[in-house]
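Escalation from tier 1.

The customer reports that the assembly of two entities below gives different structure tokens on two consecutive runs. Tier 1 could not reproduce it. I'm attaching the input and our single run for tier 2 to review.
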Amino acid sequence: AQSVSQHNHHVILSEAASLELGCNYSYGGTVNLFWYVQYPGQHLQLLLKYFSGDPLVKGIKGFEAEFIKSKFSFNLRKPSVQWSDTAEYFCAVTPSRNAGNMLTFGGGTRLMVKP
Amino acid sequence: EAGVTQSPTHLIKTRGQQATLRCSPISGHTSVYWYQQALGLGLQFLLWYDEGEERNRGNFPPRFSGRQFPNYSSELNVNALELEDSALYLCASSLYQGAYSGNTIYFGEGSWLTVV
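Tier 1 run:
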């Protein structure tokens, strides 16, 4: 079975700082990868996804993630964070050959951006 | 386009009772997933329904069950409620196009279940 690790549980940044959230997964085959965001009081929203092709994926709100197959990683980045990026971020993976594409989530990273 | 909708938003039950949560998927989506987001335990996969049938379930006891109706909406039932069942229950939907397709799963706002 696959697993996902998000090593940073809490991150505090000042506005305009750069962000990188780590995500590593454990699975031997090909995978589909996702980052979801949960703003305070809101539902999980898809930030970006990787299925195949260019390993550098751009998502909404200026976020991007890079799939590094050799490192089993899919780190999320943003060059300059804003106060409105305060949220919890979840990395998720599903094997490409997955009936139903059930997602396995990491434990989440709570990001607080100080104004 | 309406997203995944869930009801009720909040539900308070007593230990031992049964809870029923409801979900309507995005129009055109045939698959419905249920996840539990409990404090300190993260997001755990509960159940997957597609075309009216249960296709897979996570590591939860049989008192967690559900069904999918012909209109693709779904119910999650939790019997014999225990205090640790208190959590946010998330429903999600996707258009299942086969095991090799890159399906994207969209989530609803969730139903808060509190067991006292």
